[in-house]
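User: I'm new to structure prediction. If I give you an amino acid sequence, what do you actually give back? Let's try with this one:
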Amino acid sequence: MTGFKCLAVPGPTNMPFEVRQAMDVPLEDHRAPDFPEFTMPLLADLKKVFRTETGQVFIFPGSGTGGWESAIANTLSAGDKVLTSAFGQFSFLWVDMCHRFGLDVTNIDVEWGRGVPLDEYRAALEADKSHAIKAVLVCHNETATGVTSSIKAVRALLDEIGHPALLFVDGVSSVGSLDFRMEEWGVDVVVSGSQKGFMLPTGLAIVGVSQKALDARNTSDLPVCFFSFDDMIKSNSTGYFPYTPAATLLRGLRASVDMLLAEGMDNVAQRHHHLAEGVRRAVSAWGLTNCCQDAQWHSDTVTAIKVGEGFDANDVIQSAYHKFNTSLGAGLSVLNGKVFRIGHLGWLNEIMVLQALGGVELAMRDVGIPFTAGSGVGAAVDFYAGGYQAAKVAAE
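Assistant: Good question. You get back a string of structure tokens that encode the predicted 3D arrangement of the chain. For your 396 residues, that looks like this:
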């Protein structure tokens, strides 16, 4: 194959050269006397990405699924009541994990394409006079449908009602990309993964934990070993890990965190919004429909696009990959064949987005979806050029 393949899935994301270079090192001794000189600053700087001062960030070998498990196993007990909602494949899987751990799950099923049901959460929490609900689970960004929910609104609801439940957040495809404020929003456990906004290969579950959640360890009776907060706290306090860490990935994470903090977390979120809006305008110009049902839930990291009756989204994905070297995300579960997904997160700029949109147009033309060639790319160009001109005027 000549040239680069266009990676436009919602994870893994494109990996910057700086991150690849940081990992291109000889394997090292993770018990070396000077290893803490590397790990201690890294753990401290991760708190800046999560935007917490009083919380703690743990790095587990694994993926977001392992992070979900750590949140449950370290803080809850068998039979504990949790409030959840499922509105996509990943929010559904976290609910499924709660059932497997023997929790008493009150789940609210929501039509895919919508977000966290605040009114239903309110009703459930207000009815819980005895505060039997121990945790409220929220998927910040549902990658399957391209829906982002307001964590700030859920925290405001808990505070208004005066409910003491822990707030758990799936931030796998939001932390490091979207606006996320662990301390300000009172998040007790947030789960992220290395392969999304952190621009790394899969292999790290990066978990932010509040002091309130750490205190909950004292009453939890669920079995935990590999994902133990206690073991991590003890080892991390001296700059080490309770078992062999993914040291090479940690070197890449150091470079990734440096890049995020240098750009500034506010700027990172602004960039993602800017890029995502170009994609959304392209979808409208094609005459297709966003799976996300309302603008309030638009995701700035992934857009799921409905192909409409008479077409199979998998044909678009196959054509894009095999004929035009473009990787698109597939529709998951009930959305299989109905949507294809464009990931627009991580190490990304306007030119890279336009490349993905061009690949989509070639694939859609190849499978016979009717649209005006160049309409989507043109709409994105118009939007990005307008933003560039506005920034230029502001600078002058």
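You can read the tokens as a compact description of the fold. Here is one thing that stands out. The radius of gyration is 21 Å.
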